[in-house]
Amino acid sequence: MFHTLYEWFWWDRLWLPVNLTWTDLVDRDDRVYAKASHLYVTVPYAFVFLFIRYLFERWIATPLAVSAGIKQRVHLKAEDHPILELYYTTQSRNPAQADTDGLSKKSSLSVRQVERWFRRRRSQDRPGVLKKFREASWRFVFYLLAFIGGIAALYDKEWFYDTREVWTGFPKQSMLESQYWYYILEMSFYGSLLFSIAFDVKRKDFKEQIIHHLATLILLSFSWCVNYIRVGTLVMLCHDASDVLLESAKLFNYAKWEKSCKTLFVLFAIVFMVTRLIIFPFWLIHCTWVYPVHHYPAFFGYYFFNVMLVVLLCLHIFWAYLILCMVRKFIFGTLTRDERSDNEEEEEEDSSSTEDEGAEEHKFGNGLAADEKDMNGFRCLSPPENICRSKTVY
Question: Distance (Å, rounded) from C-alpha 236 to C-alpha 82?
Answer without folding.
Answer: 48
